[in-house]
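In response to the reviewer comment on reproducibility (Comment 2.3), we provide here a single inverse folding case reported in full, input and output, so that an independent group could reproduce the run without further information from us. The structure tokens appear first.
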């Protein structure tokens, strides 16, 4: 399966920002979903996650890249009017799905009509309450959506729309796991290639890759994932290792990888570094990942940085080349101090959100 950076489609084939449309259930491979009143669902997507026109990531860390640091830009309020997802801050929703509920008279006096002639006008399905009109929104602002039920004077129902927000927590951990898995598979396939005899490539230097250079760096066992293998081949001497990823490695496919390459780190055990053979590599000088274990028996570790943790000392800034050169601006706990070959796979929380895979 080819990995894609964006998963959402624009609503109802409309390209303009801030437009509500029907949930594209056919495109998403879903059944014809209806709410309790028998109505089809409505949908809006954050500009940062739209698929048409898709934002383009031409190189790591540039505008248009979609990854763990990409915020949703839609605001969602609860029925009391309190903001739950702040599109003007860091907690905005990536998309919303709206069940319109039964016909009512909107707060602006519009009586909803749902015949064929009015089927695509959101005013006839979506409502107003506490100053929030669910037919319109603005990306990156507090003008968004309100979840029903909202009552007005004399207990009249003003909003019976039910709004489901798709947030960072709903989507990004799954994408992070998928990306980490793809990278781990690339490393496994590379080691399994007969040319490599179990050995793995040098990593890309942290500082060089912060400036956009992802070449492998001689004697570098921790860094970002390399894109070229010149030093790896040279270090392996008369029995040269493969000078690139195998055909099974999905970082070679499509345009998804530049979105994530800045956030993915790679640690290589000394026993499996590029070198002439024999001897064949075997764990002696290997990595430790603790938790879960204090045993130094890992060939490699792939570490995906989660979104910036503003509560961590320094706030993990990632906007400049000097910022991108500091490991602690991406990784936490023992992962931020890789020189000792000890790493950690802790549960995610306010001070740790790295995702690890290892072998």
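Designed residues, in position order:
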């Amino acid at each position: 399966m080819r990995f894609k950076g964006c998963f959402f489609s624009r609503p109802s084939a409309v390209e303009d920002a801030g437009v509500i449309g029907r949930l594209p259930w056919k495109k998403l491979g879903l059944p014809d979903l209806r709410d309790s009143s028998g109505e089809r669902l409505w949908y809006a997507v954050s500009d940062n996650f739209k698929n048409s026109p898709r934002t383009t990531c031409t190189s790591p860390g540039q505008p248009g890249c979609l990854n763990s640091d990409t915020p949703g830009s839609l605001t969602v309020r609860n029925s009391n009017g309190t903001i739950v997802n702040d599109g003007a801050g860091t907690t905005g929703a990536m998309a919303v799905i709206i069940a319109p509920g039964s016909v009512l008279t909107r707060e602006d006096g519009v009586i909803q009509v749902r015949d064929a002639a009015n089927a695509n006008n959101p005013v006839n399905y979506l409502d107003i309450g506490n100053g929030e009109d669910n037919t319109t929104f603005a990306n990156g602002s507090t003008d968004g959506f309100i979840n029903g039920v909202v009552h007005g004077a004399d207990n009249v129902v003003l909003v019976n729309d039910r709004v489901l927000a798709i947030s960072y927590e709903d989507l990004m951990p799954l994408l992070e796991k998928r990306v980490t898995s793809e990278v781990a598979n690339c490393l496994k396939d590379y080691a399994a290639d007969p040319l490599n005899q179990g050995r793995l490539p040098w990593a890309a230097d942290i500082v060089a890759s912060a400036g956009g250079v992802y070449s492998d760096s001689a004697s570098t066992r921790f860094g970002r994932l390399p894109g070229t293998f010149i030093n790896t081949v040279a270090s392996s001497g008369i029995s040269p290792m493969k000078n690139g990823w195998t055909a099974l490695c999905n970082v070679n496919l499509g345009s998804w990888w530049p979105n994530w390459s800045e956030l993915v780190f790679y640690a290589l055990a000394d026993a499996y570094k590029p070198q002439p053979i024999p001897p064949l590599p075997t764990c002696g000088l290997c990595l430790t990942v603790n938790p879960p274990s204090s045993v130094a028996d890992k060939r490699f570790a792939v570490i995906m940085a989660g979104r910036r943790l503003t509560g961590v000392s320094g706030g993990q800034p990632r906007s400049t080349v000097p910022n991108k050169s500091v490991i602690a601006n991406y990784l936490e706990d023992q992962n931020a101090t890789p020189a000792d070959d000890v790493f950690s796979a802790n549960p995610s929380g306010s001070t740790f959100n790295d995702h690890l895979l290892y072998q």
